[in-house]
Amino acid sequence: MIDIGANLTNKRFEKDLDLVIDEAITQDVSNIIVTGTDLANSQAALALCNSHTSLYCTAGVHPHDASSYNEETHQTLALMLKEENIVAVGECGLDFNRNFSTPDEQLYAFEKQLLLATGCQKPVFLHEREAFDAQYPLLKKHRDNINGGVVHCFTGNKHELLEYLALDLYIGITGWICDERRGKELQSIVTLIPDNRLLIETDSPYLTPRTLTGKRKKAKNVPANLGHIAEIIGELRKQSVGHIKEITVKNTRSLFNI
Ligand SMILES: [Zn+2]
């Protein structure tokens, strides 16, 4: 399997990163795409990839950090995106749930990153929370110029899912789907994702699947938990876990060109 989204530069991995990566490999997670969330963090992610052969990363600025996005950020990212180990632009998008950056700052940073994706022809790694109505038109406007993308950690409704699929985007499913309350709607619509658009991710160290048992349930989330998410998705879609693993690896390789 390949975990398409793990925040391995997070402080919570400072002490046990090598252990976490080794454990992932023993649990059949052969590759991990490390999420970049701001400029410094994307640079850290790249350094990590360059010292671990099983890792790739994204480079970009999360909507929470959009206020930090300026022309210098833009130019630095444009240069970084030439690196082979950086396989996507992002995470980028809009998050009106908490507005850590103002909506205007978020719109600016997002569109600039869509232009970066146009320039480098690498896919976009999208984040969106409570901002579908603003995010969608921008994506639509640039869709013909960008080389695909994934709506990472999709948690929206049926209408939003179908609209993203209509833009021919991939859908990233996390352990959110294991949540018996928050994940209810997602559980009922995960069947609508075609085999060739499904991707899986942990979003470690966040979103520990609530269906895990024992000490894993209480611990931070790790890429080694990806197989559990694949199992739950398989049960909901009435497909074998082997099938979920097979299609998601194929989709990951195709989208990120790895
Ligand atoms: Zn995100």
Describe this structure in words.
- With 258 residues, this protein is an alpha/beta fold.
- The protein has a single domain, classed as Metal-dependent hydrolases (TIM Barrel, Alpha-Beta Barrel), CATH 3.20.20.
- The chain has ten helices and eight strands.
- The chain has helices spanning 17-26, 39-51, 71-80, 103-120, 132-142, 158-166, 184-189, 215-218, 226-237, 241-256, and strands spanning 2-6, 31-34, 55-59, 86-95, 124-129, 149-151, 170-173, 198-200.
- An eight-stranded parallel sheet has the order 1-2-3-4-5-6-7-8, sandwiched between helices.
- Helix 4 packs parallel to helix 5 (132-142) and helix 9 packs across helix 10.
- The radius of gyration is 17 Å and the shape is globular.
- The model has no long low-confidence stretch (mean pLDDT 97).
- Bound molecules: zinc ion.
Please outline what is shown here.
The protein has 258 residues and is of the alpha/beta class.
SSE topology sketch:
Blueprint lengths: L1 E5 L10 H10 L4 E4 L4 H13 L3 E5 L11 H10 L5 E10 L7 H18 L3 E6 L2 H11 L6 E3 L6 H9 L3 E4 L10 H6 L8 E3 L14 H4 L7 H12 L3 H16 L2
Parallel strand pairs: 1-2, 2-3, 3-4, 4-5, 5-6, 6-7, 7-8
Helix pairs in contact: 4-5, 9-10
The site of zinc ion (ZN) has 4 residues, from loops.
Major beta sheet, strand line-up: 1-2-3-4-5-6-7-8
The CATH architecture is Alpha-Beta Barrel
Element string (H = helix, E = strand): EHEHEHEHEHEHEHEHHH
Rg, Å, rounded: 17 Å
Large-scale geometry: globular
Query: What is the CATH class name?
Result: Alpha Beta
What is the mean predicted local confidence, pLDDT?
97
End-to-end gap = 13 Å
Helical element count? 10
Report the CATH superfamily.
Answer: Metal-dependent hydrolases
